[in-house]
Amino acid sequence: MKTIDVLAAVLLVVGGLNWGLVGVANFDLVAALLGGGSFLAKVVYTLVGLSAVYQAASLRSIQQRWRVQTALA
């Protein structure tokens, strides 16, 4: 399961950097690389969104698998 955790984290970083660029420079890197509105760009956006849902829904179990303790635990 750690592979999916890492993949989700990478996709969230990609999404976060993309949104940061949109906010600061009004530049959508995913659209620039893959074509605005293209099927591949939509796949990337969808995977980023699904990664966020996965991370939010499984935060406690991810912390347990990785043996991470936080103030919230």
Strand and helix map with partners:
Layout: H1 2-25, H2 29-34, H3 39-57, H4 59-65
Helix pairs in contact: 1-3
Low-confidence stretches: none
Radius of gyration: 14 Å
Largest sheet: none
- State the end-to-end distance: 20 Å
In DSSP terms (H or I, runs of 4 or more residues), the helix count works out at 4
> How many strand elements?
0
Strand content: under 5%
Share of residues in helices: over 70%
The overall pLDDT average reads 89
SS content category: mainly alpha
Number of individual domains = 1
Shape: elongated
Order of helices and strands: HHHH
For the structure shown, list the relevant keywords.
73 residues; mainly alpha; single chain; 4 helices
Brief characterization of the structure:
Helices cover about 75% and strands about 0% of the residues. With about 70 residues, the protein is an all-alpha fold. The relative contact order is 0.15.
What would your notes on this structure say?
With 73 residues, the protein is an all-alpha fold. The chain has one domain (2-65). Helix content is 77%, strand content 0%. It contains four helices and no strands. The chain has helices at residues 2-25, 29-34, 39-57, 59-65. Helix 1 (2-25) packs across helix 3 (39-57). The longest helix has 24 residues, at 2-25. 7% of the residues are buried. The model has no long low-confidence stretch (mean pLDDT 89).
